[in-house]
């Protein structure tokens, strides 16, 4: 079930409930973490910082609309960073370069997991190519091990 919230009536409990649906990023669950993160940030209307570039700092004489758009982006960026950092294990968080831009921070996380995914793929391919049927048991069991 997907819920949409009006941020003016969102309370701490509903935010906590959404946050609890994001499994802590621990090294082996990047895709699921990212999917849940995107859903929660979208539901809470905080994904603006991931969808749009940072707007230019408004001039003193800028319209209220321009200033409001900038403030909304800044808040979304800050909240995205807090949610992402809160839903990562300490070991993962320590291995990701610091950034004050949510989109850039998320890109750093993605790069970290692409590297480990490639290494894991290499290990699995080596294991697969070195497996040999030893004649014990049936072929189906051997294939299932693969």
TrEMBL record:
Protein known as: UBN2_3 domain-containing protein
């Amino acid at each position: 079930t997907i819920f949409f919230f009006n941020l003016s009536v969102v309370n701490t409990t509903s935010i906590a409930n959404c946050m609890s649906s994001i499994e802590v990023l621990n090294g082996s669950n990047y895709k699921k973490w990212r999917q849940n993160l995107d859903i929660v940030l979208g539901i809470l209307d905080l994904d603006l910082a991931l969808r749009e570039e940072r707007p230019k700092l408004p001039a003193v004489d800028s319209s209220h609309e321009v200033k409001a758009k900038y403030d909304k982006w800044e808040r979304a960026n800050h909240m995205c960073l807090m949610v992402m950092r809160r839903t990562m294990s300490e070991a993962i968080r320590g291995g990701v370069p610091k950034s004050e831009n949510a989109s850039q921070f998320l890109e750093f996380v993605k790069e970290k997991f692409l590297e480990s995914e490639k290494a894991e793929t290499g290990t699995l391919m080596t294991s697969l190519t070195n497996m040999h049927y030893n004649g014990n048991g049936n072929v189906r069991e051997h294939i299932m091990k693969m």
